[in-house]
Write a structure and sequence with these properties.
Structural class: alpha/beta
Number of helices: 6
Strand order of the largest sheet: 2-1-5-8-10-12-14-16-18-20
Protein name: Fe-S cluster assembly protein SufD
Number of strands: 20
Order of helices and strands: HEEEHHEEEEEEEEEEEEEEEEEHHH
Radius of gyration: 21 Å
Largest sheet: 10 strands, mixed
Distance between the termini: 45 Å
Strand content: 35-45%
Oligomer: single chain
């Protein structure tokens, strides 16, 4: 019988020791639980389309050095925190100075705060589904703790810029924990970029814990290079009448994977998830989402769109679970996909699991190609064929991109997408 591959022990030995003792102890405990951790294979249901793209070597287990680099992001219209290779760079960051809002790196926490955080980290995630979040828990070198007191409002978006400096082979493990108090509000923008040509792994975890009435908007922009494998997880817990809104824009790579898990645990909670993915050449992107309606009178709306060109591969697996006590739930999931070439592949799997009898739920998925009639119409009006294709593909996803509430992010996404499509159709 063929043995199941396991995670190399090289990935269980973090380098940084600057964390407070409670977090070092947590990291050590999590590492001990990963001994002989099975790696996903084609027989692993939630990795069956992605396992062959996962390439982990022992030299990739080495933690990439922070090296004091300030990142390569453009100026942002708000507050910002810069991480290089998973470690905060204070001199490149600009923090808000507002009552009721605390932003600290894990390495700067006192013993009591570190102890409290150690009891919360990982509590928003189902690690059986997001297996590599466990690896992050054993390897994070630093992290960002954001605490909003009851009623606190962040007046501008907070940009967290994660830059991977892959000058040598290695890995980075960014981590964020957001504790949003009653009726607090904020917008968090996570931007993932990279430099360097060496093979690298970025393994991220972001967690949101929303108290009653909290209102959080999360924006995630993944723009790393072709040499970077990215495996990320986002966990969300929502209390009564809270609202969580997510906008994810992802560009493909050798391996891109994002698990987004939301639990609606208080009555009247609402969540809205939007996602856009584009892939070309032999790139790969895998989105797995899970929404658990635990309490009654909760609402969820989910819309994801994928575009795949050349010989690339995009995946959407969305699951909505309506628990027995979640009466009066209202849940809607929609996934539309566009294939630009015969060699491209998109796999979609929307799931509904309902155990309550008084609910309103719907889901749908489509896969198609560009409409030749629409393209012919544009060409007949004097628009070049390439530009006509760009206009049609942008129209396919612009409904979601236009909903991104931060103008700078929206414009950056639109420019990058437009460049992507012009390059794609030039090659066709």
């Amino acid at each position: 019988m063929k043995s199941v591959p396991t995670l190399s022990s090289a990935f269980l030995h973090p380098a940084g020791q600057t964390l407070p003792e409670p977090l070092l102890a947590l990291r050590k405990q999590r590492a001990s639980g990963l001994v002989d951790m099975p790696l996903p294979t084609r027989k692993t249901e939630n990795w069956k389309y992605s396992s062959k793209y996962l390439k982990l070597s022992d030299d990739m287990a080495i933690s990439l050095p922070a090296a004091g680099k300030a990142g390569n992001s453009l100026a942002v219209p708000g507050y910002k925190v810069v991480f290089t290779n998973g470690v905060m760079i204070p001199e490149a960051s600009e923090y808000p100075d507002l009552d009721g809002i605390t932003i600290q790196s894990f390495s700067d926490l006192n013993a009591d705060d570190a102890q409290n955080l150690s009891l919360q980290l990982g509590g928003t995630l189902n690690h059986d589904q997001a297996q590599f979040a466990r690896v992050n828990g054993a390897r994070f070198e630093d992290g960002l703790l954001i605490r909003l007191k009851p009623g606190a409002v962040l007046d501008q978006p907070l940009f967290v810029i994660h830059d991977t400096a892959a000058d040598a082979c290695g890995s980075a493990y960014p981590r964020i924990y957001v504790e949003a108090g009653t009726n607090s509000q904020m917008t968090l923008v996570e931007e993932y970029t990279s430099s360097g040509e060496a093979s690298a792994l970025v393994n991220t975890v972001t967690e949101f814990n929303l108290a009653d009435g909290a209102n959080i908007t999360s924006i995630r922009l993944n723009m790393e290079g072709e040499n970077v494998q990215h495996i990320g997880a986002t966990g969300v817990l929502q209390a009564r009448s809270s609202r969580f809104e997510s906008h994810c824009v992802g560009f493909g790579g050798p391996l891109r994977r994002h698990d987004l898990q939301v639990r609606l645990e208080g009555e009247g909670a609402e969540t809205k998830l939007n996602g856009v993915v584009v892939t070309q050449n032999k790139q790969h992107y895998d989105n797995h989402t899970s929404i658990d309606h635990v309490a009654a009178h909760c609402t969820s709306e989910e819309t994801y769109r994928n575009i795949a060109a050349d010989q690339s591969h995009a995946i959407f697996n969305g699951r909505i679970h309506i628990h027995q006590d979640a009466q009066k739930s209202n849940a809607n999931m929609n996934n539309k996909n566009l294939l630009l070439n015969n060699g491209a592949e998109i796999d979609t799997k929307p799931e509904l699991e309902i155990y309550a009898d008084d609910v309103k739920c719907a889901h749908g998925a489509t896969i198609g190609q560009l409409d030749e009639t629409s393209a012919f119409y544009l060409v007949s009006r004097g628009i070049g064929r390439q530009q006509a294709n760009v206009l049609l593909t942008m129209a396919f996803i612009n409904e979601l991109v236009s909903q991104i509430p931060v103008a700078a992010v929206r414009e950056t996404a639109q420019l990058r997408l437009n460049d992507f499509f012009e390059q794609t159709f030039q090659e066709i």
